[in-house]
Amino acid sequence: MAGKSNKGRNRRGAHNTMTASESAVTSDALVNDNSSALESSKADANGVATADESNNAILELTESETENSASQQKQGDLHLYPVSVKTQSGEKLELQLNPGDSVMDIRQFLLDAPETCYITCYDLLLHTKDGSTHHLEDYNEISEVADITTGGSSLEIVPALYDDRSIRAHVHRTRELLSLSTLHASLSTSLAFQYETSQSKSSSSGDTAKTEVPELDGLGFMDDVAGSLSNLLFSSSKEIKCMDGIVFSSFNPAPSYRRLVGDLIYLDVVTLEGNKYCITGTTKMFYVNSSTGNTLDPRLSKTTFEATTLVGLLQKISPKFKKAFREILERRASAHPFENVQSLLPPNSWLGLYPVPDHKRDAARAEDALTLSYGSELIGMQRDWNEELQSCREFPHTTPQERILRDRALYKVTSDFVDAAISGAIGVISRCIPPINPTDPECFHMYVHNNIFFSFAVDGDLEQLSKKPASNANSNIESLSPVNGSSDKASSSLLHGDGGIANGEKCGGSTTKEQDSVVDVTSDVSAETQLTESEQATYASANNDLKGTKAYQEADVSGLYNLAMAIIDYRGHRVVAQSVLPGILQGDKSDSLLYGSVDNGKKICWNEDFHSKVLEAAKRLHLKEHAVHDGSGNVFKLAAPVECKGIVGSDDRHYLLDLMRVTPRDANYTGPGSRFCILRPELITAFCQAQAAERSKCKSEGDASLSSDSLKAPGVDEQDLTKEGRDEDASSPAQTESSEEILFNPNVFTEFKLSGSQKEISADEENVRKVSLYLKDVVLPKFIQDLCTLEVSPMDGQTLTEALHAHGINVRYIGKVADGTKHLPHLWDLCSNEIVVRSAKHILKDVLRNTEDHDFGPAISHFFNCFFGNYQAVGAKVIANVVHSRTHKKDQGAHQSLGKPSRGQGKWKSGSSARRNQSSYMNVSSETLWSDIQEFAKLKYQFELPEDARSRVKKISVIRNLCQKVGVTIAARKYDLDSAAPFQTSDILSLQPVVKHSVPICSEAKDLVETGKIQLAEGMLSEAYTLFSEAFSILQQVTGPMHREVANCCRYLAMVLYHAGDMAGAIMQQHKELIINERCLGLDHPDTAHSYGNMALFYHGLNQTELALRHMSRALLLLSLSSGPDHPDVAATFINVAMMYQDIGKMNTALRYLQEALKKNERLLGEEHIQTAVCYHALAIAFNCMGAFKLSHQHEKKTYDILVKQLGKEDSRTRDSQNWMKTFKMRELQMNAQKQKGQALNAASAQKAIDILKAHPDLIHAFQAAASGGSGSSGTSGSKSLNAAIIGETLPRGRGVDERAARAAAEVRKKAQARGLLIRPHGVPVQALPPLTQLLNIINSGMTPDAVETVETEGLKKEANGHPSNGAADSKNDQLTSGQEDQAPAGLVAGLPSSDAKKQKAKAKVSA
Predict the structure, then answer these.
(1) For residues 666 and 674, is the Cβ–Cβ distance under 8 A?
(2) Exposed, middle or buried by CB within 10 Å (0-12, 13-18, 19+), for 826?
(3) Where in or outside the cell (predicted)?
């Protein structure tokens, strides 16, 4: 039923977007009540926001436009009609339905509505206006049954009969409702709630005085990051107890004579009053029977004790239950709707509560755990994943609505598949599921469970590390070669083929490591190498296969199918899960291979029909049709890698498997062991676009007639490019050059024999070399430069990886990135820490693979102690290097225990291995571990870790990173990381699977967001709002609210509203983004930190500075966990905090934060970096507010000097700075003049500044020290993008927004001044100013310094927000930023959540 659950609800969500600019998915069916509450609260919020008519006008305009465009372009059926619902108990509620809603959707609405959430088994009757009654079937759409558009329709819920399955589901649902564990409250929500309550208290007590804003301990915990671990997890709200217990009674199953009269189950319940009851569940109802003691007495005990639902019955027998249940429903209703939604694949948390909560008895939990174990699922319950997936893919997708339905079905099936794959993989690794080929060597065991096929992949990198010392390739070859004697090659090979991780001979795709050396080695060895190396999938081949599968899914060629796939890492093993290819498990299907090769190119199959489909996909993937020889010299035309396999399943669909090399080999890596070093698809796309742009430039110069056509290329995405290139036959190199399209031959630089003229082959090789050089010589240096200018600002390993990938750079180049950023400590740390963590991950997984179940805790804590502490190995004979010692043993024992080294390097051990293993994890000492890490880093990343690497790692961020990569959860307590052994076994709380999957994304929404970003950059707010809202509504329908992309939309919507001056609206969208990020990315993901930062800025814009500072404090905590205290984003956040304190007049605190930010920036970026200038400018403004104009002038002078050096005198920002200097000078002169006139108006504030400086002599030193110039750095691109980064506006914005936002802001300001309110509109700091004339006017008009400050900081902040003036540098930055948009969160706003619906509801209540 959940299959279609979100559709209608989200459509209703979309409708709300239109009606009240809130796209909160109201999960209650009571839209009426809700929306009115929301509207009142919105008005209230707007009151606070002092938003004036002009802003509202913008918004109204936006909303009406959204409404129109959405209804025209997309869902033409967005009209909702009220339909009343009559429940079993006679209550009435109203739903807003649309004729396209399916009955499933209605059921989902009812499941969310508090009045009906506990009713699970019922039929729906639809009564129409004309008096006819229709019975609704689950899969009908309402429009198929009756016309509800005429009005007057009503629904009736009629109890249906229970059966065994539905009554159990009912009990399960009831238990679920009684627990609040599914409610994921966000800290932001509770902060807002506390703030509301404290405000309402102070207002009710008549105390209108300004509440004192507490000071943050922000600076304190930056030094003690380890101590702040415990602050990350806030325990969610207290559980509300309704019952002492509801368990299946030991009277079950019902005796046969009772079955015949309808008894299905018996439950034992204990109420809070302490009474025990035995309840009978029959096909019609639940009632309390008369059993006491050990004998069943089925009679009804009291006539009143019966009800059609379990909740109904419990409410009758226990008053306390009734009260508590009402509280639970209220708590759920008061939460933000997004906090109630289940997130599909929640992230693993690396920290667990400390002290560890007590484990309480819970019979229901025990029952679930025991009944859902492996193998006991009902056979009928198994899903045919492959059939579901492929039939969803065949859905029609011509109209937008059809595409949404298809995307949603695909998303749902794939997510469910990943879920099932995870539990299956855990079963496989913990040996609950038997293999289907138990007689084969263990490394080739395969498993089928729940219609999912599982096989193992091995860690090729680690094997290479162990091989190096052995350096005798033959010993390895011998160790595996006997395996090829597998009995029934053909059938087993196909079977494995299905696994994609092919085994037997057929495993072409998975060939590993030495394969490339084949090229240079003598032929006989190469044959042998091929045989052995092809036996087992490696980590790299599995990853590439997943990437390839994704690529073909996105190419979406009709008639060509792929299997669903997921990779699960757990307890050191990597398991590859795939949907089962139809017919593969039934007998010999060796004739079904139609395309590609199962034996590494010896025999190649080919089929015209199949080839045409593959060719179609190849064009979309930039692959070239080319000719290859098979083993006996025949020539075949392929358009895919040789080792892929095209198979016709028993369902007659064409499947393409083993897509290990969908992009060409990386020509920069051709040594042994780099067989799977392929280029990333992002790089191929970027390269093709760059080439197309270049060519169109040449063409347009050369001949005007063609230009209109070719100029399309640069902005076009792959799909369009391919359409242009499709007509030409791009096989001959000459034509390839001239056609629009660049196509790559995926089989160059491999061991396969290419056919065709030498010229053509070398042209193909040249093409691949070109793109590899483009990566090395263009993309990498550009990326490094972006990092240095903070254009791209990753915070931790995960965001660094995402940024690399988004630029098309493989992580194996991370060593080069580290070398390129040596002069910036925070970047060098980030890269080298990531290399250390990745190397340690391989070694830790190896330790875990060789660890018995009862030793996991001790093994992990021992490993952590060696890694972070200083641990000497135990035992007299310390083996120099664990990995090496293990290798020698493997080689000696290879003949007796055949497959042991491979399958995840040996899982089930014989006696001898058990003995070895006892010491294996204890053998690791700090020395051996670090020497292994250094060696691994050199081997895999060509990176020399410095000698003092151990002392230089940022311990907390590295622990966090390693835990996330391996799935470890540790206790959130304060660790003494300087001791020899900081961890104990009891600190390791759990080990969870880590998953990679190919859950599809919705391309349509992505395109809308991209277009919206461009509109926003050009300042077209209402157009951008329309596009983002539309993307939001599509994504809501496809993925439901819990998805990263939805968060992205919320973030941009918040930005648009912020620029339009609607703070309350911005906060609502931002709050949504925050909740989604917390749930989908993790509590301490950098995006979540940026969400808190943005929330703070928006609250500050509403003058709720106390609330803003609490959010800032949280943002700082999260940043310190993910990046450590040394990161420019932390400094940027400090500047924002300082601005907030400055606004509420706490100058001392503000100066402390600014000074800290200045120190950080000088240390991290150098004294001549633009960001350092930003700090000086902020200090100048602060001193200006205090009336210390002389100091202001000195600091502004430093700003000016840096800007001149980095940007030149002509740059607008440099000129702005010059104007500021003049202003400060004039102020100083004016003040002196005033003094002489005897009006020492500002003397007091100047004195205040001097007092502060006296009190903090370190401030003076810092300023003096800063005055002398310094190292300088490559701050070529301007401060605009930087400030954008600080503030987290990753948005590239051009001039347009600036003016519009400025106009809106000016209006707000006028109104505010009229009311005597002091507003700071764009809530962020730093960098430039309104034109000088404006300032002079202000000064001359004799406003109070207070008012002046408002205006200034205003302009200054705006510039900070990254709209500076035009000029070459800016336009360049604009392009950069937009390119980098989605990859990694740069700056403070990159990943946003959502705040208000919850808060709004709370507000509505408070005001009520």
Answers:
(1) yes
(2) buried
(3) Cytoplasm
pLDDT in tens, 552-576: 998 888 889 999 999 999 999 999 9
Which structure tokens are listed for 1171?
């960001």
Instruction: Provide the token pair at 342.
Output: 């289940």
Q: How far apart are CA 1175 and CA 726, in angstroms?
A: 54
Q: Which long-range contacts (CB under 8 A, 24 or more apart) does 1208-1213 make?
A: 1211/1278, 1211/1367, 1211/1369, 1212/1328, 1212/1364, 1212/1365, 1212/1366, 1212/1367, 1213/1278, 1213/1279, 1213/1280, 1213/1327, 1213/1328, 1213/1359, 1213/1364, 1213/1365
Task: Give the residues across from 561 on adjacent strands.
Answer: 655
Record the tokens describing residue 73, joined without a space.
């372009």
Q: State residue 950's pLDDT score.
A: 85
Q: pLDDT band for 99, please (50, 70, 90 cuts).
A: confident
Do 765 and 665 touch, CB atoms closer than 8 A?
Answer: no
Triad 643, 647, 648: Cα angle to 5°: 170
Amino acid at 691: Q
> How big is the chain, counted in residues?
1408
pTM of the model: 0.76
- Give the pLDDT score at 38: 36
Contact at 8 Å (CB) between 864 and 959? yes
**Calpha distance 894→474 (Å, rounded):** 12
Give the β-pairing of 263-271 and 243-248: antiparallel
From first CA to last CA, the distance across the chain in angstroms is: 37
Pairwise CA distance, residues 501 & 465, whole Å: 23
- The C-alpha atoms of residue 758 and residue 754 are separated, in whole angstroms, by 9
Residue 1317 vs residue 761, higher pLDDT: 761
Query: What pLDDT, in 10s, does the model give residues 599-645?
Result: 878 888 888 888 999 999 998 899 988 888 888 888 888 888 888 88
For residue 1294, which amino acid is it? G
Residue 890 CA to residue 664 CA, distance in Å, equals 34
Q: How many CB atoms lie within 10 A of CB 617?
A: 21
DSSP state, 514? G
User: Closest Cα to residue 1387, out of 1255, 1281, 1251?
Assistant: 1281
Q: Please state whether 824 falls in left (phi above 0), alpha (psi between -120 and 50) or beta.
A: beta
- Is 1332 in contact with 1339 (CB distance < 8 Å)? no
Distance CA 788, CA 775 (A): 18
- Please name the residue that has the structure tokens 């400030």: 1283
Tokens of 180: 């609040």
Are 1206 and 1220 contacting, i.e. CB atoms less than 8 angstroms apart? no
pLDDT computed for residue 140 by the predictor: 81
> Is the pLDDT higher at 870 or at 1336?
870
- Report d(CA 1349, CA 1355) in Å as an integer: 10
Q: What is the distance between the alpha carbons of residues 416 and 424, in angstroms, rounded to a whole number?
A: 12
Name which of 1085, 1104, 1179, 1096 is nearest 1137 in CA terms. 1096
Strands 968-971 and 351-352: parallel
The encoded tokens of residue 463 equal 């094997």
CB burial string 496-512: b at 16+ within 10 A, e below: bbbbbbbbbbbbbbbbb
Q: Is the link from the previous residue into 355 a cis peptide, with omega within 30 of 0? A: yes
Q: What is the mean pLDDT of residues 169-189?
A: 85
Ordered alpha helix ranges (H), 579-648 = 608-620
CB neighbour class for 927 (10 Å; exposed up to 12, middle 13-18, buried from 19):
middle
Cis amide leading into 901 (omega within 30): no
**Single-letter residue type at 953:** V
Considering only CA atoms, which of 789, 828, 782 is closest in space to residue 808? 782
Q: Which class for 322: exposed (0-12), middle (13-18), buried (19 or more C-beta within 10 A)?
A: middle
Amino acid at position 294, single letter: N
Largest CA distance in the chain: 109
- What is the CB neighbour count within 10 angstroms for residue 798? 22
Most confident listed range (128-137, 209-218, 1298-1307): 128-137
Question: What tokens were used for 24?
Answer: 């909160």
796 phi, psi to nearest 5 deg: -145, -175
Q: Which residues contact 1141 (CB under 8 A, 6 or more apart)?
A: 1109, 1147, 1149, 1150, 1153
